[in-house]
Design a protein that fits this description.
Bub1/Mad3; Serine Threonine Protein Phosphatase 5, Tetratricopeptide repeat; transferase; BUB1B kinase; mainly alpha; 9 helices
């Protein structure tokens, strides 16, 4: 309220000072921003209220208000173009540095370098700060270009290695080949493939030498006329196996659905002194 009343009844020669202090107080009071700070609305009011004051166009305080307002906008690049067209902050290095950083973040390195070059041609102040940021920008672009070249060369080398040396697929489904005689497939790559070819040529040479000997045949896993794998036929049991002896094993039988009858002792009359004898049970208990 104090700042609002000071802005309303201000009669001094530097109204920008009041807005600048008002913005700084808002940022310090509400460092997290949000709706409570109402910072974007205050910034919009400040730049509009001072828009007719051309003496502030090259003032760093006024440019700082515009750049903070640009952070609240959806498209800050449009705001920077507007500032450039209105000659607001065009002699200050902060405009070109902020503009180029946004373009660099979006990957438009060529346009960012053009913004830096324009600021250097205008000799925006402070010039040493602008030159320092431009050198750092060039180093980042050069580093990014080198990384992209290394990644592309690595991908090319990987492609060439993959074409020259095929990789064996692991955990793949094995599909048998052949209709009558199913054989498991053999997958070899690299040195194993070369060794297999050498063994195959040696086996061919050996089979030619021993073709006249009918006593045995050389086994070739890759030839179509290989030896048949013997098939195991099930043999019947001579007698069923004896089961294990189980503890507390009961023979099968019907469940007893009868109820246990309880023996009730007849009540004796309290008045009569004659004791009624208890009935004898209908079964004989077993005594060891």
């Amino acid at each position: 309220r104090e700042f609002e009343s000071e802005i309303r009844f201000y009669s001094g020669h530097d109204p920008l000072d009041v807005w600048d202090r008002y913005i700084k107080w808002t940022e310090q009071t509400f460092p997290q921003g949000g709706k409570e700070s109402n910072l974007s609305a205050v910034l919009e009011r400040a730049v509009k209220a001072l828009n007719e004051q051309r003496r502030y166009y090259q003032d760093p305080r006024y440019l700082n208000l515009w750049l903070k307002f640009g952070d609240c906008c959806n498209e800050p690049l449009d705001l920077y173009s507007y500032l450039h067209s209105q000659e607001i902050g065009t002699t200050l290095a902060l405009l070109y540095i902020t503009w180029a950083e946004v373009l660099e973040a979006r990957g438009n390195f060529k346009k960012a370098d053009q913004i830096f070059q324009e600021g250097l041609q205008r000799k925006a102040e402070p010039l040493d700060k602008l030159q320092s940021h431009h050198r750092q920008f060039q180093m980042r672009v050069s580093r990014q270009t080198m990384l992209e070249l290394e990644e592309s060369s690595d991908e090319t080398d990987t492609g060439l290695l993959g074409a020259a040396e095929p990789q064996r697929s692991s955990l793949a489904d094995l599909k048998g080949r052949g209709k009558k005689k199913v054989r498991a497939p053999i997958s070899r790559v690299g040195e194993a493939l070369k060794a297999t070819n050498q063994n195959r040529s040696f086996q061919t040479f050996t089979s030619q030498q021993l073709s006249n000997n009918p006593g045995f045949a050389v086994f070739d896993e890759n030839s179509a006329s290989g030896l048949e794998i013997p098939v195991l036929t099930p043999q019947p049991w001579a007698a069923p196996p004896v089961p294990r002896a189980k503890e507390n094993e009961l023979s099968a039988g019907p469940w007893n659905s009868g109820r246990v009858r309880s023996l009730k002792r007849p009540r004796s009359s309290a008045n009569s002194g004659v004791e009624v004898p208890c009935p004898l049970p209908s079964f004989t208990p077993y005594v060891e």
